[in-house]
Design brief:
Layout: H1 3-9, H2 11-19, H3 30-41, H4 46-57, H5 61-72
Length: 75
């Protein structure tokens, strides 16, 4: 499959992503964000969650806060 074929097949999804200023590179952090949501639902404090995720995924603390803000945004 070529890039064109893939983009044509996913055109409507990609248009929403581009129109919403979505950072499609965040797809590599979906697992991190899912774990953030699970821990948050368990009642842990955000500071503790972020520290834990930083250790587990090797992502800077500030980047995790930015990622959570982006992923929580309504589109």
């Amino acid at each position: 499959m070529t890039q064109y074929e893939y983009m044509k097949m996913s055109e409507s999804v990609l248009k929403v992503a581009v129109g919403s200023n979505m950072n499609v590179a965040d797809v590599k952090h979906l697992e991190l964000y899912e774990e953030y949501r699970r821990l948050k639902a368990d009642g842990l404090k955000v500071t503790y969650i972020v520290d834990y995720l930083q250790e587990q995924y090797g992502v800077p603390v500030a980047s995790i806060y930015r990622l959570v803000k982006r992923m929580s945004r309504e589109i």
